[in-house]
Specification:
Elements (H helix, E strand, L loop, with lengths): L2 E5 L6 H14 L7 E5 L5 H8 L5 E4 L16 H6 L4 E4 L2 H7 L3 H13 L3 E6 L3 H5 L3 H9 L2 H4 L5 E4 L13 H17 L10 E4 L7 H5 L6 E4 L6 H11 L1
Parallel strand pairs: 1-2, 1-8, 2-3, 3-4, 4-5, 5-6, 6-7, 7-8
This protein binds phosphoenolpyruvate.
Length: about 240
């Protein structure tokens, strides 16, 4: 399975999102083989779902709360994501861990809540530069994946995103990606996550159409979670074609 997911972060407004989707759909192959997805801001979920879900693309929330409803001002629940047409939800993006105090404990609850509402979690993991320099990369990835021993198995996509490669233009080198993805696969197997489910491992961090073909040749790289380059529909369509 090959997958390419656009993370729009806190970008675009309605007319820009509409123009993006219309342009993208014109440039995609008629029946893309790769699984494609867009993670727009909450305000655009309904609009984007209406435009791309009929064409078979996934739409992901960028976060979701573990509770179904209640006094959580500023939060969005899994059933609310479902209600506006989402098929999945990004969880644990490094920007959420770094700026909004996302914890592994909360993420375990969020994964279970996503499954309860038939949403596909795309769990993002990755080390900071300080952790890499201290030789802690695999320990950090192992810790972030250890929540799977609490959740048990279910439908899941994982994105390896070295924090130092996100939005910096500094992509991880092939041997670094190879080592991390092989380790993540071994951990997923150890936690029993792959017994009944195909769990693709995406790479994220300054992916562009120039760098993607090399990444796709690395064992266990099933695709990409793409920020900056995904704001250009032509670049996103190019990445989708490369993944096909
Ligand atoms: C991301 O937002 O997950 C990401 C990988 O961003 P960028 O492609 O801009 O590095």
């Amino acid at each position: 399975m090959r997958c390419v997911v656009a993370n729009w972060k806190m970008n675009l407004q309605s007319e820009e999102a509409r123009a993006f989707c219309e342009d993208l759909l014109v440039h995609l192959a008629p029946e893309p083989q790769a699984e494609l997805g867009i993670a727009p801001p909450f305000t655009l979920l309904s609009l984007v779902s209406g435009l791309v879900r009929p064409k078979g693309l996934h739409v992901f929330g960028q976060n979701g709360h573990a509770e179904d409803k209640g006094a959580f001002t500023g939060e969005i629940s899994m059933p609310q994501l479902r209600d506006v047409g989402c098929s999945g939800v990004l969880l644990g993006h490094s920007e959420r861990r770094q700026f909004f105090g996302e914890t592994d404990e909360a993420l375990a609850k969020k994964i279970k809540a996503a499954w309860q509402w038939d949403l596909l979690p795309l769990l993002c993991i990755g080390e900071t530069l300080a952790q890499r320099d201290a030789g802690e990369t695999l320990a950090v990835l192992g810790q972030q994946l250890s929540i799977l021993s609490q959740t048990g198995p279910g439908p899941l996509w994982v994105a390896y995103e070295p924090v130092w490669a996100i939005g910096t233009g500094r992509r991880a080198e092939a041997p670094q990606v190879l080592e991390a993805h092989a380790f993540i696969r071994a951990e997923l197997i150890r936690h029993g996550a792959c017994a009944d489910y195909e769990v693709p491992i995406l790479y994220g961090g300054s992916v562009t159409p120039e760098s993607f073909p090399e990444l796709l040749n690395i064992p266990e790289v099933a695709g990409g979670l793409v920020g900056g380059a995904s704001l250009d529909p032509h670049k996103f369509a190019a990445l989708a074609k490369q993944a096909d």
